């Protein structure tokens, strides 16, 4: 296996930067097409809060200056690009004057923790079950049970979340109802805190796993059927290899390849979170941040979150491009 | 001393439409160190019978009756073994060399690992250097250099190399019986001879019995000691190869033997009562097809070196282009169909450059130049009935007067290729056999009354007994319907019988050209000679050479690199060829 050639790496990096730049530009343009004025919106909220506002014109001008809206469009754009690339998304309009980057920095670890764990768990369980649906040595009971379990795939996560909350929190009282960690622990790198986080994260993660594993299982099933019909699977059997070895090294090993691409795309998307799952479990992640920002027309936050989503997707695709030749020898860097 | 005994074996496939008796009452034995050929058409049960000895029947098939004994086992009845016991028998006692050489190796594993995992599955923990020593020995025994090949991935090997790796896997545990399922059907004749002789050599060395499954009587005659002829799941004839080939008793065996086209000898097509068909007098004196110094490069690879020819359409002719895979013959076909632009030169149809036509001219070009391709399975849209494939171009080109007329034309075309319209029309492609589908493709082309037909390997994927029929259909297009044909093939024997003129292509050069009786009957160029000596045919007294000869021949082929001059062996009226 050759090392990654420099020309290929440069090529992919340029693509990565261009993708991110174009996406950032679109994020900047689209809200401006709506014609809404964030300064007026902020003033409106002040007025709604205080009954009336004195010196409205001065405050409006002050707000415009603070937000940089008095500058020419090109200057605004260049400033925006510079800020975005340094991950400075400005100040939230709804929770003025909190910096957006701080809000994202607070929310991102929660989402990445919850979503990455549930995605990895779903990926493993889903693909394994999908493979078992096809494998000829799967016990009959499993073969019958897996398709039944697929019924959950058609349940929206919000319903599965509510159902799990009802059963495990309200009735059985095994798990807490909401929040990212218990009120009795101090956030910090302690075992108590970590335990509390895992304990609180269990139900939201489970509600996502239960409804999304079918996506992987069904995809894997189709791929496995193809691989099962391949001559190399027949030859593997004719070589007298052990059934489990054939399953892992010949069948799953080949069938999993397209699933890995899908996995990378999902990593990007997971930052957006399962918005409603975070909402019902009152989980302070990116999904909840985005949801609240949309309700309060908090453009800087929406832009910041969108940018992070794009950045993650582009990075994940970039990484897959780099590692793919190492997992599939038929693909070469460059070439 | 026999190694394998089949006693009254019957194999059933229960389906929703009732039980299919794939194999009925087959009894035969394979002697130690003997080679037995299983021959028959697709669906004759030859592979099913052989796979039953490995207990690897495709679901839902099962052995409904009889016994299968492998005599080297203490408990010889294979059907009585448990799943784990059977697993231990595979590869160590009975090994299998699969048909699809292209796809038989795990694409994500190195060659050596695929030999090691077989050894480890049967012998448990074997030290790494011992594994390497044995995989190297196995690869060397099939004529592959272990240093080069062992660490490669399958996609880095040619078809012939992959098939030899499969043989290396099959012999690495010195089995008592080797089952080779059409091991060379995807290879060209030169590679076929090399692989077949390698297989014979290693089999003789380890003294294993060999079951060779195939449909080519010629290959059988050159490769086995005994032949079992199967038809529709029944063993119709079984005996020593000389007796089967020279004094066949069953009519089906005779048919199989006579369906092998041989160079020389009686025409294997029924000489058609040649109604002197004439093509159109060429439009304003322009030739039907002309290539002017056409060449094709893909990146730095030259697929076709500059060549020119002129084919007039006054008297229809069949021009054969023969060569191995990679010789540039299919590139020529796609250039003539206008699917590819030439890198230099021009392709002219009736005096017009086919890559510079107006939309109207392009449409009429598409009607007048039709194609038949290799894979009759891939040529139909599986979601439509076959009528659609026949009807659509006919209506699209405005040839149809009304629905009844279309129907009439479809039925007539079916009859012209020897198909009963009521049995094929209205059915879906998957309900028809490969031969029926390929004949429908010919019928579809015929409905448009083209001037030129380009047939790219039209019979390489159909059973030997049907080849003659389809080639006869194509031949009739020339004789009865006045269509000129470019016949692209790797099969020199069929080219010998159908064509008026043959061009032999090697690495993008025409190395030899002329009437088939000269070029194929008495080849002068080393490459043509090699091709012809590699063809297996049912003649037991013919020396097919040893595997060393075959390897030497392959080496000679390498040294033929870049010999641009063509050996011209005579002309026929209405066709001229020149290199450059």
How do the helices and strands line up, and which of them pair or pack?
The complex is a heterodimer of chains A (335) and B (580).
Chain A lengths: L5 H28 L4 H13 L5 H12 L5 H13 L14 H35 L5 H10 L7 H15 L19 H38 L2 H8 L4 H28 L4 H6 L5 H10 L3 H29 L8
Chain B lengths: L1 E14 L2 E14 L3 E5 L6 H7 L9 E9 L12 H7 L4 E4 L13 H13 L4 H14 L4 H4 L9 H13 L5 E5 L7 H18 L2 E6 L2 H7 L2 E6 L2 E7 H6 L4 H8 L30 E10 L2 E11 L6 E5 L6 H8 L7 E6 L2 E2 L5 H10 E4 L13 H11 L6 H14 L4 H4 L9 H14 L4 E5 L7 H18 L2 E6 L2 H7 L2 E6 L2 E6 L1 H4 L6 H9 L12 H13 L7 E2 L6 E5 L1
Parallel strand pairs in B: 3-7, 3-8, 5-6, 6-7, 12-17, 12-18, 15-16, 16-17, 19-20
Antiparallel strand pairs in B: 1-2, 1-4, 8-9, 10-11, 10-13, 11-21, 13-14, 18-19
Your description of this structure?
The complex is a heterodimer of chains A (335) and B (580). Chain A is mainly α and 335 residues long. Chain A has helices at residues 6-33, 38-50, 56-67, 73-85, 100-134, 140-149, 157-171, 191-228, 231-238, 243-270, 275-280, 286-295, 299-327. The longest helix of chain A has 38 residues, at 191-228. The two termini of chain A are 14 Å apart. The model of chain A has no long low-confidence stretch (mean pLDDT 83). Chain B has 580 residues and is of the alpha/beta class. Chain B contains 21 helices and 21 strands. In chain B, the strands form four sheets. Chain B has a seven-stranded mixed sheet, sandwiched between helices. A six-stranded mixed sheet of chain B has the order 5-6-7-3-8-9, with helices on both faces. Chain B has a five-stranded antiparallel sheet with strand order 14-13-10-11-21. Chain B is globular and about 80 Å long. The mean pLDDT of chain B is 87. The chains are: A mainly alpha (335), B alpha/beta (580). At the A-B interface, helix 9 and helix 10 of A face helix 2 and helix 3 of B.
């Amino acid at each position: 296996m050759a090392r990654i050639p420099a020309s290929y790496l440069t090529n992919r990096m340029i693509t990565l930067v261009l993708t991110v730049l174009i996406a950032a530009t679109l994020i900047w343009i689209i809200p401006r097409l709506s014609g809404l004025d964030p300064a007026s919106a902020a003033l409106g909220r002040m007025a709604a809060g205080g009954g009336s506002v004195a010196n409205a014109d001065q405050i409006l001008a002050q707000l415009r200056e603070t937000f940089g809206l008095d500058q020419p469009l090109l200057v605004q754009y260049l400033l925006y690009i510079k800020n975005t690339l340094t991950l400075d998304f400005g100040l939230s309009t709804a929770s003025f004057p909190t910096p957006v980057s701080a809000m994202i920095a607070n929310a991102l670890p929660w989402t990445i923790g919850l979503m990455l764990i549930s995605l990895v768990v779903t990926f493993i369980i889903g693909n394994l079950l999908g493979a078992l649906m096809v494998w000829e040595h799967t016990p009959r009971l499993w073969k019958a049970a897996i398709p039944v379990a697929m019924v959950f795939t058609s349940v929206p996560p919000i319903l599965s979340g509510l159902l799990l909350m009802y059963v495990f929190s309200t009735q059985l009282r095994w798990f807490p109802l909401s929040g990212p960690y218990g009120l009795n622990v101090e956030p910090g790198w302690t075992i108590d805190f970590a335990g509390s986080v895992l304990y609180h994260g269990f139900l939201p993660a489970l509600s996502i796993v239960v409804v999304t594993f079918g996506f992987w299982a069904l995809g894997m099933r189709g791929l496995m059927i193809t691989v099962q019909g391949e001559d190399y699977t027949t030859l593997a059997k004719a070589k007298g290899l052990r059934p489990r070895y054939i399953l892992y090294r010949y069948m799953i090993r080949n069938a999993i390849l397209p699933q890995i691409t899908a996995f990378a795309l999902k990593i990007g998307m997971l930052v957006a979170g399962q918005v409603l799952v975070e909402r019902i479990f009152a989980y302070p992640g990116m999904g909840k941040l985005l949801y609240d920002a949309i309700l309060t027309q908090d453009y800087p936050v929406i832009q910041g979150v969108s940018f992070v989503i794009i950045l993650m997707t582009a990075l994940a695709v970039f990484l897959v491009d780099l590692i793919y030749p190492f997992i599939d020898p038929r693909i070469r860097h460059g070439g | 001393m026999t190694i394998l005994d089949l006693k009254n074996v019957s194999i059933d496939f229960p389906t929703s439409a009732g039980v299919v008796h794939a194999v009925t009452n087959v009894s035969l034995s394979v002697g130690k160190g003997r080679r037995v050929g299983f021959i028959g058409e697709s669906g004759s049960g030859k592979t099913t019978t052989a796979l039953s000895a490995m207990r690897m029947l495709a679901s839902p098939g099962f052995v409904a009756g009889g016994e299968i004994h492998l005599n080297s086992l203490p408990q010889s009845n294979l059907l009585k073994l448990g799943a784990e016991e059977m697993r231990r028998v595979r590869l160590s006692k009975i090994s299998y060399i699969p048909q699809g050489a292209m796809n038989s190796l795990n694409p994500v594993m190195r060659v050596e690992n695929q030999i090691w995992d077989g050894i480890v599955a049967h012998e448990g923990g074997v030290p790494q250097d011992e594994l390497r020593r044995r995989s190297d020995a196995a690869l060397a025994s099939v004529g592959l250099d272990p240093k080069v090949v062992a660490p490669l991935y399958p996609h880095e090997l040619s078809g012939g190399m992959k098939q030899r790796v499969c043989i290396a896997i099959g012999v690495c545990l010195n089995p008592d019986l080797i089952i080779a399922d059409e091991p060379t059907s995807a290879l060209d004749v030169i590679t076929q001879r090399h692989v077949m002789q390698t297989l014979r050599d290693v089999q003789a060395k380890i003294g294993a019995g060999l079951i060779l499954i195939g449909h080519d009587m010629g290959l059988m005659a050159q490769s086995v000691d005994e032949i079992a002829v199967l038809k529709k799941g029944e063993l119709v004839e079984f005996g020593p190869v000389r007796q089967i080939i020279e004094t066949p008793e069953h009519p089906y065996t005779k048919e199989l033997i006579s369906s092998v086209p041989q160079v020389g000898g009686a025409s294997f097509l029924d000489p058609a009562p040649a109604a002197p068909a004439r093509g159109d007098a060429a439009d304003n004196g322009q030739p039907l097809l002309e290539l002017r110094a056409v060449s094709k490069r893909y990146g730095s690879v030259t697929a076709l070196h500059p060549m020119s020819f002129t084919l007039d359409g006054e008297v229809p002719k069949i021009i054969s282009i023969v060569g191995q895979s990679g010789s540039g013959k299919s590139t020529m076909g796609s250039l003539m169909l206008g699917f590819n632009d030439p890198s230099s030169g021009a392709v002219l149809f009736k005096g017009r450059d086919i890559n510079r036509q107006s939309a109207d001219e392009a449409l009429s070009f598409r009607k007048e130049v039709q194609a038949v391709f290799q894979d009759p399975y891939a040529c139909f849209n599986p979601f439509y009935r076959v009528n659609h494939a026949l009807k659509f171009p006919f209506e699209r080109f405005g040839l149809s007067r009304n629905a009844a007329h279309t129907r009439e034309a479809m039925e007539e075309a079916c009859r012209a290729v020897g198909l009963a319209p009521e049995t094929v029309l209205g059915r879906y492609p998957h309900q028809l056999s490969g031969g029926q589908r390929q004949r429908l493709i010919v019928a579809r082309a015929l409905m448009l009354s083209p001037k030129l037909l380009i047939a790219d390997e039209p019979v390489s994927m159909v059973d030997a007994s049907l080849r003659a029929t389809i080639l006869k259909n194509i031949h009739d297009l020339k004789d009865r319907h006045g269509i000129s044909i470019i016949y692209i093939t790797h099969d020199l024997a069929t080219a010998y019988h159908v064509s008026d003129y043959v061009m032999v292509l090697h690495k993008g050069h025409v190395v030899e050209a002329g009437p088939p009786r000269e070029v194929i009957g008495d080849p002068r160029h080393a490459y043509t000679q090699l091709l012809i000596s590699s063809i297996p045919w049912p003649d037991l007294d013919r020396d097919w050479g040893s595997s060393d000869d075959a390897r030497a021949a392959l080496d000679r082929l390498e040294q033929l690199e870049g010999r641009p001059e063509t050996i011209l062996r005579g002309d026929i009226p209405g066709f001229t060829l020149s290199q450059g």
